[in-house]
Amino acid sequence: MRHPILVLDTFTANQIAAGEVVERPASVVKELVENAIDAGSSRVDVRIWSGGTQEIQVSDNGTGIPRQEVLLAFQRHATSKIRSADDLLRIATLGFRGEALPSIASVARVAMTTRTAEESEGTRITLEPGREPVISSTGCPVGTTVTVSELFFNTPARRKFLKTPLGEAGAVGDILQRLALANPRISFKLTDDRKIALMTPGSGDLRETFASIYGVDTARAMLPVNFRGTWGEANGLVSPPAISKGSRHHQTFVVNGRFVRSRILSQAMDTAYYTLLGAGRYPLAVLHLWLDAEKLDANVHPAKLEIRFYREEEVIIMAREAISGVLRAHSLVPGIEKPPGEGPKIEKPTYQSYRQISVPGLPPFDRVAEPPVGDEEYTGGQDWTTSRLPVEIPPQADLPVNDTTEHPVKPRHPELSGLIPLGQLEAAYILAQGQEGLYIIDQHAAHERILYEQIRQQAEDSSLPSQGLVVPSAVELTHEESVQLMKHIIFLTELGFILEHFGGHTFLVRAIPAGLEQTQEDQLLKDMLDLLREMPGLDDAGFREAAVKMMACRRAIKAHQRLTPGEMSHLLWKLSLAKEPYTCPHGRPTVVLITSAELARRFKRSAPA
Ligand SMILES: Nc1ncnc2c1ncn2[C@@H]1O[C@H](COP(=O)(O)OP(=O)(O)OP(=O)(O)O)[C@@H](O)[C@H]1O
Ligand SMILES: [Mg+2]
Question: At the top level of CATH, which class does the domain 342-609 belong to?
Answer without folding.
Answer: alpha beta
